[in-house]
Write a structure and sequence with these properties.
264 residues, alpha/beta, 60s Ribosomal Protein L30, Chain: A, Alpha/beta knot, 2 domains, four-stranded mixed beta sheet, 9 helices, rRNA_Methyltransferase
Length: 264
């Protein structure tokens, strides 16, 4: 169906998307998941999320092979830009219904409670783009799920999904309601919790042998402040990435990718 009027109610999911930008820590989200770009939409189409609509310029939308039961709307680039509130270079968007966070017990156990597991635990990770980048690395580097403290950004927010290239839609996540006390749930499930810190008295990350610890959870804090002392104290191991002298730390997304690789 062709959209010529930017006020057409059929594309309400996509209207003025920048006005929907919210700071991290805002109340729980109820708006649809918004996915930008054909590569990310293709991942959405094979994810557990129910697609509500696809909207974009004709050539990009037609190349997606959208199922017949999904509403498809096309428009020229000017109408598209007027609806969403900015110029979209990726040519297509999709909206989907949200899913609730995963059950914590099921996520910790996994499909096979005896199988090796790798999780990423995020404390106060309040930057949506860092969260999306971590999710993309997590999927690429063998992480089985994300655990978020109550202050973390929304992993299903538009910018998180975009930076993750849609990979966050295939990564289960759960919320740890009591922080950092909930780390005991991980310990009870057999996980070695590894708190990443640049502190000089932390052990070298390369000394943590993943073959000796088939279930490992990497703790990562917000860009800048890092993990709180309380979170570090609650973890079983404090580990640092070995770096050249004079460099005190890495960005959290880069540090996460290195830790995920080291602990595979």
């Amino acid at each position: 169906m062709t959209i010529t009027d930017p006020d057409d109610p059929r594309v309400a999911d996509f209207r003025d998307l920048k006005a929907g930008d919210r700071p991290a820590g805002a109340p729980p989200r109820t708006s649809p998941v918004i996915v930008e770009g054909t590569a990310a939409i293709e991942r959405l189409l094979i994810s557990p999320y129910r697609v509500r609509a696809v909207f974009g310029v004709a050539g990009r939308v037609e190349a997606l092979g959208v199922p017949d039961d999904v509403a498809v709307y096309v428009a020229d680039k000017w109408v598209l830009s007027e609806v969403i509130g900015f110029r979209l270079t990726r040519g297509a968007l999709a909206s989907a219904d949200r899913l609730p966070p995963a059950d914590l017990g099921q996520l910790l156990a996994g499909p096979d409670p005896a199988a090796p597991r790798r999780l990423a635990v995020l404390e106060a990770l309040n930057d949506h783009e860092n969260l999306g980048s971590i999710a993309r690395s997590a999927v690429a580097l063998g992480i089985d799920g994300l655990l978020l403290d109550p202050r973390c950004a929304d992993p299903l927010y538009r910018r998180s999904v975009r930076v993750s290239m849609g990979h966050v839609l295939t990564l289960p996540f759960a919320v740890l309601p009591e922080w950092p006390a909930a780390l005991d749930r991980l310990h009870d499930a057999g996980y070695l919790t590894v708190a990443l810190t640049p502190a000089a008295d932390a052990v070298d990350l390369t000394d943590v042998d993943p073959r000796e610890h088939p279930r490992t959870a990497v703790l990562l804090g917000a860009e800048g402040p890092g993990l709180t002392p309380e979170a570090q104290q609650a973890a079983r191991v404090r580990a640092r990435i070995p770096m050249r002298s004079g460099v005190d730390s890495l960005g959290v997304a880069a540090a996460a990718a290195i830790a995920f690789t080291a602990l595979r």
